[in-house]
Amino acid sequence: MDDIINRKRKGMGCMLIVPLVFACIVATTVALDRLCVEVLQWRVPVHPEAKIVRQTYNFLTPNGLGQSVTTYFVKGDPRDVELWFNRQIGERLRALEKEPSRSFYYNISAVSKIVGYAEDGVNTQLIVIAQCLSSRGE
Q: What is the pLDDT of residue 6?
C-alpha cells in the first residue's frame, strides 16, 4: 500500500516539476525578448522620413531576440542618409561614455547597415540589420 502511495507522489511531483520548468523557460525567453526590443530601440536609429518597406525577423518579435532585417525607403540622397545614420550611431556611442551602465546593451547587440539608391534611382533604400543575443555572424 505504501508503495502505491509513493508512486503517486512521485508522479505528482513530475507533473508539477515539468510544467514549472517549462514556465520558467518561457518566462525567461519572453523577458530576454523584451530586453532586446528595448536595447535595439536605443541602438537602431530610424530616420524621421523613413518608411518601412519590408521587415523580417527570426524569432518572436521584430528587433527582439535573434536577427531583424528592416528595409526602409527614405526620401533624399543616399550619402545624406548614410551621414545622418552614422551621426546617430556616433551619438549613441558617445552616450556610452557618459553612461557606462549601458555598455551591457552595446555588448549584447549589433547593428549594421546597407545604404544605396532606391528603385526609383533618386531616393534611398536603407537596410538595417540588427542582432540581439544572436551568435549568427552574418
A: 63
Cβ neighbors of 21 (< 8 A, separation 6 or more) are: none
Cell numbers that stand for 105 in this block? 546593451
DSSP state of 101: G
pLDDT on residue 105: 75
Residues facing residue 113 across a β-bridge = 128
Amino acid in the structure at residue 84: W
DSSP state of 49: T
List beta partners, residue 34: none
Q: What would the pLDDT profile of 37-53 be if each residue is shown by its tens digit? A: 988 888 888 999 999 99
Phi, psi of 58 (to 5 degrees): -115, 20
Question: Model pTM?
Answer: 0.79
* 130 class by beta-carbon count within 10 Å (0-12 exposed, 13-18 middle, 19+ buried): buried
Residue 136's contacts (CB-CB under 8 Å, 6 or more residues apart) are 66, 67
